[in-house]
Every structure is written in C-alpha cells, then in structure tokens.
Amino acid sequence: MITANGAELCVETFGQRADPAILLLCGFGGSMDWWDEELCEQLATAGRFVIRYDYRDTGQSTSYAVGKPGYTGLDLCDDAVGVLDALGIQAAHVVGISMGGGIAQRVIIEHPERVTTLTLMSTSAITPSEVELPPPAARIAGFAPEVDWQDRDAVIDYFVAAEKVYAGSIPVDEKRIRAIAGRVFDRTADMAAGQTNHGILEDGGEPVRRDGLARIGVPVLVIHGTEDPLFPLPHGEALAAAIPRARLMVVDGLGHQMPPPEVWPVVVPALAEISEQGAL
After folding, report:
1. Of the candidates 164, 165, 118, which has an alpha carbon nearest to the alpha carbon of residue 140?
2. Which of 111, 116, 145, 211 sits most deeply, having the most CB atoms within 10 A of its CB?
3. 93 pairs with which residues across the strands?
4. Which of 108, 82, 83, 110 is nearest to 94 (CA)?
5. Are strands 246-251 and 7-9 parallel, antiparallel or unpaired?
6. E-strand stretches of 72-217
7. How many Å apart are CA 108 and CA 269, to the nearest integer?
8. What interhelical angle do 73-86 and 99-110 show, nearest 10?
C-alpha cells in the first residue's frame, strides 16, 4: 500500500527494480487483477520492472460511496504519477488499455517528462477526431444486466457474460475469466463503487488541447483488435494517425478485452520491443 495524491493505492511489482519500468493502466472499473499475473511475469522475464495497481474504488485502494466519487479523472492521471513517485521511478513505459488508454494519454500530456514510451490498447483519442468514427456495436448498447454487486456468484457471472459480449472471435476461456473475477471480488472493498463511480467522474483540470496528441514526442505503439465492438478498428487507426511516431499493430480476432493468452505471443514481444526505446 502506498499513499499517492491523497489516496491509498495498492501496488504490486514484478521483476528487478533496476530494469526498465512498465506501468500498466487497466480499464473501466478494473483492479490490477485484470492484468494477468502470468502476463506480468512474462514481461518481467523479458527484463522489465512491471507495475500494476488498483485504481481508486477498485481492489484494495481507497473506496468512496457509490455515486459520490471524491476524485476526478485528472486525479486518476495524477495517481499514476504518484505510483511512480512512491517507487522512486523518474519515468516509465506507460501502457494503458481502454479507459486506461485515456488516462495514459492524459498522463503524457500533463506530465510528459514521466513517460518514456506510450502504448495505447483498445482505446480511442481523448481529443476530438478529424474523421467520423463508428459507434459501438449494437450488442454493447443492449448489454445492461442488473447485478447484485454483493453476490459473489452474480458478479462472476456478470464478468463472464461481459467478456463474451466484448470479445472478438478468439474463444473465451470461461474458467480463466471466472478465476480472475473471483479474485477481483475477493480483493475489492465495494464492487459497486468502481463499477459506478468511474462512469460518473468529472474530468477535472483544464480541457485537453485539440493538438495535445500531436505534441507527443516519444515512441508510441497503438494496439487494436480487428473485432473491437466498443471502439471499432477505425478508432485505433485514427489514434495512431493523430500521434507523431506512432505505430499501429492490428491484432486479428481481438475484441475489446484484456489481452487473452492467445495473443500474448505477439503482445509481449511488442511491449518488450517498445520498452527497449529510451530505456532509463
């Protein structure tokens, strides 16, 4: 547990502190558990110091009343920097997925000196797009089940159902998702808080400049699935086009989901390769 930006955050690291640091930022309402431990170990074996942590209202980090988050979107950005401060890390290779990709973009815009390279997965630009982008697939809008967030079995069933809705054509390993969801439930003080509060946050701070992404000066990797139903592939293509030095890596069959083991053989080397650049 660390204190960062006025909150208590739960942090876990893998690998040797002397190695280049990779900071992993999860998606909406996601605790660190969704960054698979084996994936983190593979990155550590590749010579990286891997950092994952629980956002506010997730896992063992500070929790707030449902519907009353005592923080803003900008605070989540500053929390990421606070994690680096607490670990004594000057700058890191920042990897953000979905909402975490939005946070990662905000981190490099607000604190460019703290980001060595940037990887954005299954996400969209936080600045207005110059092209019209497709909306989410119809099945996303239709997925709104009522969940008793205090019922462990119901919560696990919800995450399995959500994985199937958001996944692409890569088969969902239900046993694996059930195991992760169970750990998430067991570690989280209030499941309803993260699943509610992250969706109602005020942005906080000054609006991001329209040219914010164009001013990014570090190597950037955009990883996007061909079958992402929330942010269809044109979102990833537009994001990569908006950032100088950005490279787009398209993953066949991947939906809007944490990288399943089937894609680790391409995702892990890609993360290892980009984190070779500008290594501190």
Report:
1. 165
2. 116
3. 22, 117
4. 108
5. unpaired
6. 92-97, 115-121
7. 23
8. 70
What radius of gyration, in Å, describes the C-alpha atoms of the chain?
Answer: 17
Euclidean distance between CA atoms 69 and 279, whole angstroms: 36
Locus of tokens 């209030």: 190
> Does pTM surpass 0.90?
yes
Q: How far apart are CA 107 and CA 115, in angstroms?
A: 8
- Spell out where the chain has E strands: 2-4, 7-9, 11-14, 21-25, 49-53, 92-97, 115-121, 220-225, 246-251
Question: Token digits for 268?
Answer: 């892990």
Q: Tens of pLDDT along 99-108?
A: 999 999 999 9
Strand segments, DSSP code E, in 139-256 are: 220-225, 246-251
Nearest-5° angle of CA 271, CA 262, CA 138?
A: 95
3-state secondary structure 56-81: CCCCCCCCCCCCCCCCCHHHHHHHHH
Are 40 and 14 spatial neighbours (Cβ–Cβ below 8 Å)?
A: yes
Domains of the chain: 2-274 (3.40.50.1820)
For 164-220, the pLDDT digits (tens) are: 999 999 999 999 999 999 999 999 999 999 999 999 999 887 667 768 899 999 999
